[in-house]
Write a structure and sequence with these properties.
There is one protein chain. The protein contains 21 helices and 16 strands. The chain has 494 residues and is an alpha/beta fold. The strands form 4 sheets. Strands 4-5-15-10-11-14 form a 6-stranded mixed sheet, sandwiched between helices. A 5-stranded parallel sheet has the order 9-6-7-8-16, with helices on both faces. A 3-stranded antiparallel sheet has the order 2-1-3. α2 packs across α3, α3 packs antiparallel against α5 and α16 crosses α17. The longest helix has 20 residues. The chain is globular. The termini are far apart. Bound molecules: pyridoxal-5'-phosphate. Pyridoxal-5'-phosphate binds next to α11.
Length: 494
Amino acid sequence: MSIMYKSTRSSSEKVTASQAILKGLAEDGGLFVPDSIPALDIPLNRLPSLSYQETAYEVMKLFLSDFTEDELKACIQGAYDDKFDTKEIAPLVKKDGAFYLELFHGKTIAFKDMALSILPYLMTTSAKKNGVTNEIVILTATSGDTGKAALAGFADVPGTSIIVFYPKDGVSPIQEKQMLTQKGANTNVVGIIGNFDDAQTGVKKMFGSAELAQRMGQKGYQFSSANSINIGRLVPQIVYYVWAYGRLLKQGEIKEGEPINVVVPTGNFGNILAAYYAKNMGIPIQMLFCASNENKVLFDFFETGTYDRKREFILTTSPSMDILISSNLERLIYRIAGEDAAKTKELMDALADRGEYEITPEMREGLSCFAGGYATEDETAGMIRSMYEREQYIMDPHTAVAAHVYEAKGRECGTAAVIASTASPYKFTRSVTDAIDNEKYGNLGDFELVDELNRLSGVPIPAAIEEIRTAPVLHHTVCDKSEMQAAVEKILGL
Ligand SMILES: *Cc1c(COP(=O)(O)O)cnc(C)c1O
């Protein structure tokens, strides 16, 4: 069966998977969605015998139906190789009765590597398939982790260049250093005076500008996106939920067909949406717990049916979840609206114009498999500390937000729970050591804390951290949030 993609905001445009990957965002500003969600076509009892790469093929072939078997397998082999520090790619570890799906074993030690290791392959294959000769400019807004993972993935990939915008004061020191030391002649990093929502809004605006697209075209450029608005990001993320179910079977923790729950620390709603797609493909996922930090706009949405971004933007110790406009929620809205593009557009316009929208009671019924939860800063730190004390297992603050929500809401139902563990604690040394013992570690520098963390956890220091200790800063551009387009024009010489 061939899957085509259409926009969440109009029913006219239909494109192939490779075209959707190239475009990133639909022309009407909507997000591309598959015209149906394909069912997994292998039985669940085969999952335990598959490698991560084989699982990836079984899932991705269904969504990327215009890729040939050879093309897709080449993409998968190129992506999931020894760039990951474990053969399993995404190990599932049991701690204190829950299953932590460690998604941070890639090159930049955040879960973004799971999709951004393969996106450059999908992108260049898509360009070839569609006869694109323009240079593809990857325009990306990051709340901290996407930026580095996308830079690492696209650095020196022929036919592409990449421009990353990040909130200058909204990322961890290690996240910032990771980005600013990125090598590669085709890489550009710009700090903005503004927050992640400003960066994402600015990027989406450039995508939507026909005038800019035309000037780009004259110079031989076209935009695409490495954000989770790109289905080339979303589809590879479905894989690890299917994989996790196979691991639970293989490890004898569940029986075939037994339901599981997932708990996902959420920002832009890409990761948890991938879990929802896995559920719709036939993986027996019962409940999806959407875990937020103090920017709990999603928690309120699941509680009330009203999405209201008109509130203070709070900087937290889980910066990759400091988001008030969760882009991928639009794909869920579209689905629970019965794939009604006009309705989806109406709600998204209300969000842009009035800062809020309310869904109908019928739509709310479609959310019955979701539950929202959140952790305050104290609860997050408390979770890091208590897990360390019980299991000597050190979580990063994003994972700790999810673990807290699991303890508060998920554990009591007794269903096996997979908690998405989205970053290595080495990316957030300051917050993690503060949580464990602020008095002892408060005066140490960021890289001294790396060594402390190594002593505390016994986990080897990842190459991603060793690399940046002494690496020179190569990117220095900072601009106001209102000057993003000017920055792009300067970089591209438009
Ligand atoms: C991006 C990110 C998240 C949020 O994921 P979304 O797909 O945006 O919801 C959570 N944790 C970490 C460490 C991240 O990098």
